[in-house]
Amino acid sequence: MATRTAAQRRADERGAYDAYLATCPARQLLDRISDKWVSLVLNALADGPLRYGDLNRIIAGVSQKMLTQTLRALERDGLLTRTVTPSVPVRVDYQLTALGLSLLPVMASIKSWAECHIEQVQTARTDYDRGTATELPAPGP
Amino acid sequence: MATRTAAQRRADERGAYDAYLATCPARQLLDRISDKWVSLVLNALADGPLRYGDLNRIIAGVSQKMLTQTLRALERDGLLTRTVTPSVPVRVDYQLTALGLSLLPVMASIKSWAECHIEQVQTARTDYDRGTATELPAPGP
DNA sequence: CAGTATCCCTCATGATACTG
DNA sequence: CAGTATCATGAGGGATACTG
Fold it and tell me: Does strand D come within 7 Å of the CB of A34?
């Protein structure tokens, strides 16, 4: 019998690919910014620092868990700073770093493409969903 | 009693936000391109059309299911075309449309930022993971 | 105020098997 | 060759309750 099934082969290929992707800079960035809450947080902080509660209100539907998790991830990546003021009650401010700010133009370019072309995409979707009927002669009953 | 609990309030806010996000062009685009296989497919097709089997080989770890699903989604969005040649055996070619091609520069800008700054991000991560020890005087035993 | 801890549940992904 | 169909799983995300 074969020492290696097709399934095993594929699994190996997947492993190698995953390893490659894990170290791919573009992949890492995409994984970060494509997170729903990340983009919203970056946007909210674009105009200046905000407190935890502010973010919680501005980003309407976010749960505490996801907000905290998102902020921690961004802090870890050096995209924002977390400043604790040990008053009573405690106050915590979040602010974009230079690195975080440098990301905003990238987000803007994404937004720009989207706003210019999303209509074409939506039209394409509608056409596609209407079925391939357009390229077929109407089938008779 | 309150006609609306805090939980209900939050749920409503979430609903409204979700609805907003669902129609936000930038969000839609991010959701598309951030998909692991989508970016790989777009990249693979950047240099010209390829057959299903080619894509399956080039994008090493992809399963048939995910490849087909990805290609269908991109076709639906008008980002690529699917051309069936009814020979025996059948032959199917995938090719980026003008719309799909116009997306490549956006991907490039993402890649560019990542390659320029990912090192800073990784340094930040290492520092963060080392603990906040750097900003605290070494705690004595 | 700004979190942490816990449970729960859905949905996306992948492996496998079958087909025109 | 180029898919479709079906099933299993596991990670992500939300609701809820508790705390310094």
Answer: no
Please give the full DSSP string across A72-106, using - where no structure is assigned: HHHHHTTSEEEEEE--SS-EEEEEE-HHHHHHHHH
Residue B74 buriedness (CB in 10 A; 0-12 / 13-18 / 19+): buried
3-state secondary structure of A80: strand
Q: Residue A31 carries which side chain, given as an amino acid letter?
A: D
Strand D footprint nucleotides (protein C-beta < 7 Å): 1-6, 13-17, 20
pTM: 0.89
Return the closest-CA partner of residue B119 out of A72, A19, A77: A77
Alpha-carbon distance B92 to nearest alpha carbon in chain A (angstroms): 16
Contact A14 B77 (CB under 8 A): no
What token pair was written down for A88? 């009573």
Give the model confidence (pLDDT) of A16-74 as tens digits: 888 888 899 999 999 999 999 999 999 999 999 999 999 999 998 999 999 999 999 99
| Interchain contact, A60 vs B17, CB within 8 Å | yes
Of all residues in chain A, the one with the smallest CA distance to B19 is A61
pLDDT at residue number A140 = 40
Structure tokens at B36: 């692991």
State the Cα–Cα distance between residues A38 and A40, nearest whole angstrom: 5
